[in-house]
Amino acid sequence: xxxxxxxxxxxxxxxxxxxxxxxxxxxxxxxxxxxxxxxxxxxxxxxxxxxxxxxxxxxxxxxxxxxxxxxxxxxxxxxxxxxxxxxxxxxxxxxxxxxxxxxxxxxxxxxxxxxxxxxxxxxxxxxxxxxxxxxxxxxxxxxxxxxxxxxxxxxxxxxxxxxxxxxxxxxxxxxxx
Length: 177
Description:
Elements: E1 2-3, E2 11-12, E3 17-18, E4 23-25, E5 28-30, E6 35-36, E7 41-44, E8 50-52, E9 57-58, E10 63-66, E11 72-74, E12 79-80, E13 85-87, E14 90-91, E15 96-97, E16 102-103, E17 108-109, E18 114-115, E19 120-121, E20 126-127, E21 132-133, E22 138-140, E23 145-147, H1 152-159, H2 164-169
Parallel strand pairs: 1-4, 2-5, 3-6, 4-7, 5-8, 6-9, 7-10, 8-11, 9-12, 10-13, 11-14, 12-15, 13-16, 14-17, 15-18, 16-19, 17-20, 18-21, 19-22
Antiparallel strand pairs: 22-23
């Protein structure tokens, strides 16, 4: 379903396929030979556009969002797995974002990188070309350090400096306490 939102209509290449129950809303460009599969949602809010390069696949029930101040850009040949969540991110060509992965605003993923099942690329973090986030692990920082989820204190020590509240909500982090 193609929906005009905030005065902007999606633009879908003739060779692309959008499943009948997928939602593509707002300032979204779906490139040549792309596939947006059943239940996927591509929604652009404010100035946060979305652009899919050629031959991208957005699988079932994935959510791809463009948000104010953070467009989402997928390079050519990107695969986004089922139930993945990409929110204001840039993903370079030939990258693979697996089932259940979460990419937060301001994150970048380099060419040919992989974010495996339930992997996370945190806000304002940068995974390099050919980078890898193993199953359930977290990439945090710029350049990203890839850590297992049991290393919460180390993840937090890096994440705290990445301005999650400012990037996601537009507010300053409150003082300690």
